[in-house]
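Journal club side-thread
Mid-discussion, someone asked how the predicted structure for our own chain would compare to the paper's figures. Pasting it here so we can look after the session.
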Amino acid sequence: MRRVYLDHSATTPVDPRVVEAMLPYLTGKFGNASSVHLFGQEARAAADGARRQVAALIGARANEIIFTSGGTEANNLAIRGVCELAEPRHIITSSIEHPSVRGTLESLEKRGWVVTRLPVYDDGIIRLEDVRSALRSDTVLISVMMANNEIGTIQPIKEIGALVKEERQRGRRHLWFHTDAVQAAGRIAIEVEHLGCDLLTLSAHKIYAPKGSGALFLRRGVRLTPQQVGGHQERERRAGTESIANIVAFGTAAELAQREMPARNEHTRRLRDRFENAVKASIDDLAFNGDHKRRLPHLSNISFRFIEGEGLLIHLDMQGVAVSTGSACSSGTLEPSPVIRALGRDEELARGAIRFSFGKDNTDEDIDYVLEVLPRAVESLRALSPLSRQTIAAS
């Protein structure tokens, strides 16, 4: 049976070139980067090199990069770190953030913080005027993801950054702007100076590096409270012995992503568009979720009416095709995706949503195979649906 992986928004396979770069730091170059001897100096030099590579991916300075264990930790560090320097005040976010942001904000609400969650419209994008209207005199943080992990829509980050700058010029010196760029980095060009963000989250395993490494961009001059203490690592902003092999892998993946981004995007966009056009022509009663133009080049989210997304996922998996019903960090829940519901979709369409996310190593033969098994899977599941049978009989 052919196996086709279309879940690159959940994680990506590790690039062989990344493996080659990190292997020496799993064997002979095993030093602790905090040690002063040659082994330690070797590790420190490797971490510093990787820091420059990651910084270059987003147009930052190397000393503005804090390595973490992943995107979730980086989001926690950004949000808690900034907010815990002040008494409970006000935060603005969107209604479709990643669970690691949603969960962090919910925990702060229990401690007295007030959170305004801005709606997205049927295109999955927030409006700048809503951000402006939500600002209060006690607003400390705006946290809006750069690109959504389920539907791929790209938010007006540059415009929000300009708004924050405008507010600072009016005297609001302690208003900070954070964006979760885990899905966007390596897929769209990022220049933190142009965006105007103060904190930005990254994750290695979304760009063909291993799981277990992430980073937080922290603009110079922005203070935060460390969430892990007990060591001087990462300029005393994140304690703990650095995972040098993973950091080296992250740096290599970041450099490759920056260099190969145009070719990767052209490839995945072509596969995605071909896939969507064929699905539209072969399957009825479906809806494409999110803005059709302002989205990441590798992602397609489709709702199939009259079926459960989980059932379709399992059916496709049995045919060797890996897809997702939404965020991998929300798997296991029986509730329909809050992201799809936020678009105004009814519960049936929300429950029938499937995310197809394409990668640099997918082929036209992969797409041919999926287009062969997907219509059959949908037809088979709809044949078992009482609602589908009633609709057909009524027509």
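Post-session note: The chain has 14 helices and twelve strands.
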